[in-house]
């Protein structure tokens, strides 16, 4: 029996999504009966446009180099297919005689895979459909964590470790805005940047908790009074009790995307607006950074654990397809501290659902994480995480002002 | 003859300024006759407050670990001492019997060293004063380049290499705003992120050239029409023909620092305002990032060449002080491709002066750099610079839409 493979990448790029791509390609190329391994350019959009590349003509050596390169080597898309769009996808797959469809992406992508699988079943067309997890937001249900998250988390940790040192050298208030519209995992990762008791981030705001601007100012003031400085990690998705994004409340008219969502990334507005609020407390030196696209695309900041797992979910996807009989989504399950296994879970389990930070991961204060979260995250960050050192206090006696 | 050493760090922290500190400390500790090696907390402010730590009681092992940590381990300051402030500095040095004063910083810091040296000379007090170069802006005259620049440049290169990949995966316009009020070296470094002809950054705007907003929009539009996307590197210090910062022109009331300068860093406003300008051309997906403090403080992105040289300028400062008879500023001179020597140049040569990008480094278009600049920068970035790979084109024939 001959097989034709199609693989595509969807949604926001990550540091390791190409590992998953190459995991699929190399594993597919070694399966008996596989006559073609195609890649669609720019996700589902490339499928409906029949914009395919033949990955059977790519050298193994170059594939390995691409695997180590961030972003999405096939290109990606923000298209969120509806039923009609999915029907077009199916029509193209059928026309090209595709027997196995692999889509690497987040919860929207898994929903696309689910609908295409239903189209194929309804048409009685033999098509194996596998979703491969990917998202820096870590918001896929059924997974201990998702490929891409750990490397972005590592970037956030290294960024806050440095911002904390910089803020200690030139004291003031520093606000760092982190990606994550609905899930606070990436913002919470900043907590791993703390080494000493007085290190920042001193305050962490995730979208799983209601953000109150008055309490925020009071939190910052209290921290500043205690340490003479304050480092703050804020999720771009913070919102008030009604669910209105704080960015919308503080700012005026804002760009909305095809999904009707306010544009949160690619703008420094939230950090700037929060800085203005902080200045109302009378604190002078207030600085805000928005980590923006750097946190998902920066070349050279990657977790080796993330790389390995991203590669494996791609490989396992092909193995599940060729050794099993079900469609599904590859899920990462934690076993031991630290190791993982992979399972194929039903597409409906993952599709279109959003995981949030579990309550046990958020401290009662609402502005910190728990040890359970620290323990959860640490192994994902991988090896050779940079460490920060400080001089030990050996004060010299004053001569002029002995008082 | 006994000697007492004081070392301090001033201005914006860098990834390698602690290498210079440790270079001074370890080299000073091994000099015959040295009875004390003190560090001032938070630069000149720590001096006038007699806030000293005894670095003779610090272990060599911990000093080595601190050397590898970014920011300023002693703390820094933005104070820009006037004559009265410098007199206070001298009074404290005299009271503590300091014989050798080392100040690690930029052109403002070298001016402080110059004035303090004059105070000492006027009082006939034997004080050796050495300025040790440091600045991510690379704007010190008399130096081939300055410690701290190369690591920040490496961050900018890795950031744009990733941003380019991300932008290729999800096409649109991307604006990255880079530090550098007067000198465009750091923004120009983004050019080293280009590997293929169609890679970004496609446009680079430095403060050495007048920024025209209409030409900017036209440049972006033309690039977008050619490549279907556009990646832009912009210096925070871009200004119009009158020298007015573009941020001031596009925005309203802005915070000014003690030097009367508009606050350019720690705000995402310039990127956001440029994005608004670009949207006027009709381009839909426009995203802006401001690299902010990450580019000077990020833990784990450092040039090994920069580390080595930052260490050596600290060591050489002590050797010039103990083996020579002049005050001065340690300067890096390039010899061969690639190696450096160190010279002690007069404080007045460096003090308060600003180096700009040389004309031979800027392309005639005004939006790119020359090969001379690429050749100049590459060795500074150090070894193991991450590289980006792409799939090779092997298009599959269309089945449905053969036209």
TrEMBL record, chains A, B:
Positions that bind Mg(2+): 107
Record-listed substrate binding positions: 135-137, 179-181, 236, 293-296
Record site feature (Important for catalytic activity and substrate specificity), residues: 108
Active-site residues per Swiss-Prot or TrEMBL entry: 137
SUPFAM superfamilies, sorted: Phosphofructokinase
Entry coiled-coil feature ranges: none
Domain Phosphofructokinase, chain residue ranges per copy: 4-320
Cofactor(s) the protein needs: Mg(2+)
Marked site (Important for catalytic activity) residue numbers: 134
EC nos: 2.7.1.90
Regulation: Non-allosteric.
Reactions that this protein is recorded to catalyse: beta-D-fructose 6-phosphate + diphosphate = beta-D-fructose 1,6-bisphosphate + phosphate + H(+)
General function of this protein: Catalyzes the phosphorylation of D-fructose 6-phosphate, the first committing step of glycolysis. Uses inorganic phosphate (PPi) as phosphoryl donor instead of ATP like common ATP-dependent phosphofructokinases (ATP-PFKs), which renders the reaction reversible, and can thus function both in glycolysis and gluconeogenesis. Consistently, PPi-PFK can replace the enzymes of both the forward (ATP-PFK) and reverse (fructose-bisphosphatase (FBPase)) reactions.
Family matches, as NCBIfam families: PRK14072.1
Protein name per UniProt: Pyrophosphate--fructose 6-phosphate 1-phosphotransferase
């Amino acid at each position: 029996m001959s097989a034709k493979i199609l693989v595509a990448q969807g949604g926001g790029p990550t540091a390791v999504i190409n590992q998953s791509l190459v995991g699929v390609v190399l594993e597919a190329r070694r399966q008996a009966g596989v006559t073609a391994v195609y890649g669609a350019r720019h996700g589902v959009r490339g499928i409906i446009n029949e914009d395919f590349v033949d990955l059977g003509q790519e050298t193994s050596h170059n594939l390995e180099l691409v695997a180590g390169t961030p972003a999405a080597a096939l290109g990606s898309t923000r298209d969120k297919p509806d039923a009609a769009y999915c029907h077009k996808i199916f029509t193209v797959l059928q026309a090209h005689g595709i027997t196995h469809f692999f889509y690497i992406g987040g919860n929207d992508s898994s929903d696309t895979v689910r609908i295409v699988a239903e189209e194929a079943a309804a048409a009685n067309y033999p098509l194996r459909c596998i979703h491969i997890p990917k998202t820096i937001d870590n918001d896929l249900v059924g997974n201990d964590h998702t490929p891409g998250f750990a490397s972005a988390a590592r970037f956030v940790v290294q960024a806050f470790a440095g911002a904390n040192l910089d803020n200690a050298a030139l004291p003031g208030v520093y606000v760092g805005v982190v990606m994550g519209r609905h899930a606070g995992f990436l913002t919470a990762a900043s907590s791993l940047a703390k080494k000493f008791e007085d290190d920042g981030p001193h305050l962490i705001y995730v979208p799983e908790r209601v953000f109150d601007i008055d309490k925020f100012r009071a939190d910052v003031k209290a921290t500043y009074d205690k340490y003479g400085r304050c480092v703050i990690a804020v999720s771009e998705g913070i919102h008030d009790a009604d669910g209105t994004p704080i960015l919308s409340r503080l700012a005026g008219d804002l760009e909305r995307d095809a999904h009707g969502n306010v544009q949160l990334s690619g703008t420094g507005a939230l950090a700037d607006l929060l800085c203005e609020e902080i200045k109302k407390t009378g604190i002078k030196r207030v600085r805000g950074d928005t980590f923006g696209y750097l946190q998902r695309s920066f070349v050279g900041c990657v977790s080796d654990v993330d790389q390995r797992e991203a590669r494996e979910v791609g490989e396992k996807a092909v193995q599940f397809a060729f050794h099993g009989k079900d469609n599904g989504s590859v899920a990462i399950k934690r076993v031991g501290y630290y190791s993982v296994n992979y399972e194929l879970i039903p597409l409906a389990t993952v599709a279109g659902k959003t995981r949030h930070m579990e309550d046990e991961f958020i401290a009662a204060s609402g502005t910190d994480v728990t040890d359970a979260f620290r323990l959860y995250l640490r192994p994902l960050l991988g090896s050779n995480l940079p460490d920060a050192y400080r001089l030990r206090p050996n004060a010299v006696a004053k001569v002029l002002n002995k008082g």
